[in-house]
Amino acid sequence: METSLRDWLSRIRRHLHAHPELSGREHQTTAFVRHELTDLGAELLDYPGPTGVVGLIRGSEPGPVIALRADMDALPLQEMNKCGYRSQRDGVMHACGHDAHTAMLLGVAREICRGGELGNFRGAVKLIFQPAEENGTGAAQMVANGVLQNPTVDKVFACHMTPETPVGTVRVFGEAGYASNDHFKVTVTGQGSHGARPEESRDPLMAAVHLAAAAQTIVSRNVKPTEAAVVSVCRFHSGTGYNLIPQEAMLEGTLRALKPSVRELLIKRLEEMCACLEGMFQVDCRLEMLEHIPACNNDPRAGKVVRLAAAEVVGPEKVIPTSPIMGSEDFSHFTNALPSAIFQLGGANPDKGISASLHNPYFDIDEAALPLGVEVFLHILRNELSLEQA
Fold this sequence. Notes:
By secondary structure, the protein is an alpha/beta fold. Helix content is about 35%, strand content about 25%. The protein is built from ten helices and 16 strands. The strands form four sheets. An eight-stranded mixed sheet has the order 1-2-4-3-5-16-6-15, sandwiched between helices. Strands 10-12-8-13 form a four-stranded antiparallel sheet. A two-stranded antiparallel ribbon has the order 7-14. The two termini are about 25 Å apart. The mean pLDDT is about 95.
């Protein structure tokens, strides 16, 4: 692979990093990706969503269709880095590596269209540039909009940057990868009063405080210690004055689990606690289960394809078996539909001061990881679509 690829990838990634867009609003990013794919000579497929791009590169003979997916959206976060390519949009930042994911997928298209390492191949490569991963809706929308048809996809592969390992490493899950994620919201409605006359109130704030504390016992007292689960209350809002007992209190949070049975238990216990709260505090307690992202599990055979390809690129000693994590990834909508796999690409370099975690205002990557990610994807495609495999 020619050395200019790294410079090309850096240019693409830095442009995307400087112009981040929030979930569902990736209009300029969509236009940019469409322009780059057209310039490279890839075929653009019709996609009905307002944002998102689907490209196709056909091989010389019939065969499987392998899809590669990259997410494009950014986070509502103010960047603190002082680099020349820092975000030009206040309060919006690529702090999860989606700029790198998009750049690498464009790099794959560049190498294939230029007749690079993949050479002649059978089947087709479908390039899926997905919006709205951060709010958990994009993958489900794309699947519902038929992104896995016309032509029908056989497998999907994806990459996610990780600051937990240095550049030059690849982490691959066994089967279980990312946890399910359920966004819950509880609205507690009571009777407000003067703070000096609490006996006239039905205090929703006190009830909500008890619920927030009680919810922490769900994992410690209901879930087996050998099974992973998380219940976190992350937002709490109530009241307008220091001497006013409010009419309403609201709390929101997330439930995480690796197994469907554990997820169902978390929801059941939260429902039961909300029902008990009404009797204890004489309030109305309304639980809403909002966005749901299923657990993301690698198909064993697809995971083996990734491990083999990664070992060919970085060496087997730098392919790290990885335990499941409680973060979520809406790539699960692809893994639930087809044999698929996602891998993590190391991007940290402490010697350069690049070690901040995901969703951190100082997050960055060592761009030496970009061509490695392209190479891993190309090796996956070669192993899946080589004419020798026909």
